[in-house]
Structures are given as structure tokens and as C-alpha cells.
Amino acid sequence: MQKGYARTTIGQIEAAAGLAPRTGTFYRHFKNKAELISELARSEITETPEKFDLERLLELGDTRAEMVLIAQTYEQFAAKQAPFLELIEELRRTEEGAAFESEVNADMLDALTGWVASKPGASQLSGEKLLALTMMIFGGWLFFLFKSQQGVFSEKLGRGAMIEEWSTYWASELDADGR
């Protein structure tokens, strides 16, 4: 985080981890820096379907409550990712980082789309329409989180009002019989 991905050497990583620097010890654990950062991102700061545990949410039987939990989980990940934003942006510009982000985003979108598809209001939609609906639902919440981090909505739209209106509206749409 301090020096960035490109300016941090394997030797520096070894020294920071308490390993003998420049002895190749790092390579007993990882192929390269990209593999290390991918592993750290996957385990520590990246939202994944497993971390959201969407199947457990379905046990609630209340779409609005499920949406609030999904929103809160996204908030937790946004807060966890905040200190890493510069590093994340640097990694996005690398081939490995772009591939990793694409994979993680596809997995998360598939999981959210599956969750949306389980609802009566979306059960009859074609794949393309289901994906578009999923993007509309969660895109609104993610936009709010992104802009809130920038301080844009702090006075005009509070978190409580946003989560209430967002979850209530979309839950009513998803719980309606057939679209």
C-alpha cells in the first residue's frame, strides 16, 4: 500500500514478511507478485459470492430483509476496500489485475443474478433481461456507495433513506408475480 504494486520488490515483500530477503523464499509460496496480490485480494478485500452467502439469505424468506443484508455487506466491503483504493486502481491497469477483477465481477454478478432469478417477479425473465434487472437493482446501490465515499450525498440523501427506499422499491418489484 505504501509504495504501490509496481514499486514494491519481491525482496521488500520477503523482508516485510520476516523472510530472508532476496533468497527466493517468496517463490516457495507464490509464483510472482501477481499471485500474491490476487490471493490477498480474494481473501481480504474482494467481495465474493461465498462471503455474501446468498443461499443463507434465502432462508430469511423476506426479500426486503435480504436486500438490506446484501446492501450492508456491500457497505462492509466498500469500507474494507477504502484504504486499498490506490493499490486496486494500480492493479486494474495490469493484465493480471484486470483478469482477476473480471473473474471476480463475473462470479459476483452470476451469484446476484441467481438470487434475483429466485424471486417471483424475475422468474420468467430471459437471461438478458434478468441480467439487466440485476444490474439496475445493484447498480443503484453501488453508485450510492461510490458517491457516498466521495461525500456527494452526505447532505442531500442519507444512508437510511436510501437503503429504505432502494430495498422497499426493489423488493416490491421482485416479490410481484411475474414481470
Question: What key attributes describe this structure?
Answer:
single chain, 179 residues, mainly alpha, Tetracycline Repressor, domain 2, 9 helices, 66% helix
Could you outline the blueprint of secondary structure elements for this entry?
Blueprint: H1 10-16, H2 33-45, H3 49-52, H4 54-58, H5 63-81, H6 85-92, H7 95-117, H8 127-149, H9 159-175
Could you walk me through the main structural features you see in this protein, from its secondary elements to its overall organization?
- The chain has 179 residues and is mainly alpha-helical.
- It has two domains: 1-30, no CATH class; 33-175, Tetracycline Repressor, domain 2 (Orthogonal Bundle), CATH 1.10.357.
- Helix content is 66%, strand content 0%.
- It has nine helices and no strands.
- The chain has helices spanning 10-16, 33-45, 49-52, 54-58, 63-81, 85-92, 95-117, 127-149, 159-175.
- The longest helix is centred in the middle third of the chain and has 23 residues, at 95-117.
- The protein is elongated and about 65 Å long.
- It starts with 9 loop residues before the first helix and ends with a helix.
- The mean pLDDT is 86.
